[in-house]
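User: Can you write out an input/output pair for a complex, sequences first and structure second?

Assistant: Here is one pair. Inputs:
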Amino acid sequence: MISYLFFHLPNNRILYIKIISRPYVVDSLLQWTIDLLDTNIVAQNSHKKILLDPHRKQQSDFVFVSHAHTDHLYSKKDGYLTSVTLASKETSRIARERGYSLGDIVHEHPGFELLNSGHILGSKGLVIDDEVYYTGDLSTRSRSFMQPAVLPQIETLIIESTFGRPEYVFPAIAELVHSANKLISDCYNRGSPVVLMGYQLGKAQLLTELFRHWEPMYVYDSIDRINCVYRDLGVDLKQASSFQEAECAGKIKKGIPWILISPLTHGRSKFIRNLKIKYDAITIGFSGWAVNSRYKYMMGLDYAFPMSDHCDFTELLAAVNKCKPKKIYTFHGFAREFATILVNRGFEAYPLERNTNTKKAYSNPIENSRLDSYL
Ligand SMILES: [Zn+2]
Ligand SMILES: [Zn+2]
């Protein structure tokens, strides 16, 4: 808004002063607020309401689905209550394969930008009006065919904090692969087969690729199906046979080593117990939680390596610094602890915690007892 002040000066002169005031009313209407509503992360201003990876059905103008892990989807049958669902074509395809329908999706829409978040195939973060960036799950390191996340400079950052504690720092991928190869080689020399275990969407495909030089390689049926989808979507994954089919055909023999890419389950699960009894199989798990030395015992695994599709602590801090945000919201995992660490580093940060349905600036010391609930 522009207005003028007039002053009559001596000698019939007039002084005009032009006053330009900021339109505060309009600003506050366009201001984005970030909140938890009925456990959903919601970004809204007076014009738009956007649900970010919603867990519950809720009316909105837009829904954004960052990737096809089930903790970021909410319904197998129902569509979302929205006019526009934003997601990548890979996310839609993988979700469909897992029995979830995202309905009619769009990959672009005015006011939004989907950026690679580096977590699994097709995972995206969402830039809203060049002001808010929601990361979804995030990885900033290259891993085989996975490219690192693209990070924008942004006013408000909503960042995942799965490994938002200082002890969660992962070794380089090359170092992890080297150590695992050495271990597999020792097992092969003894005639023992090796079960490489990771979450079946994302990690299992990376394991298929990173250890592609080992023969024969088998994959668990559910992983085989996702590997096929990855190939359909253009990832040149190694073709490995279904373990269940090979076993039925009598191709699996004791004393002759092989590699199996398997979902991460407890070492005492029926399937793994059988592999140990019949073939003396050795289990190796891959998870960021393996930074904790108790992890392999809790999971009943022979070995565990800290390989993750999430940022480690130092990568999370680097991501925040790169985005240069004025305000930060943390979600997932150590949301409170990471927000506290950011506050101590001079940022304005708030945890978004689904269990409390509140957000608040947090400055209590880190609680050690929370660790176990995430292993
Ligand atoms: Zn995920
Ligand atoms: Zn997640």
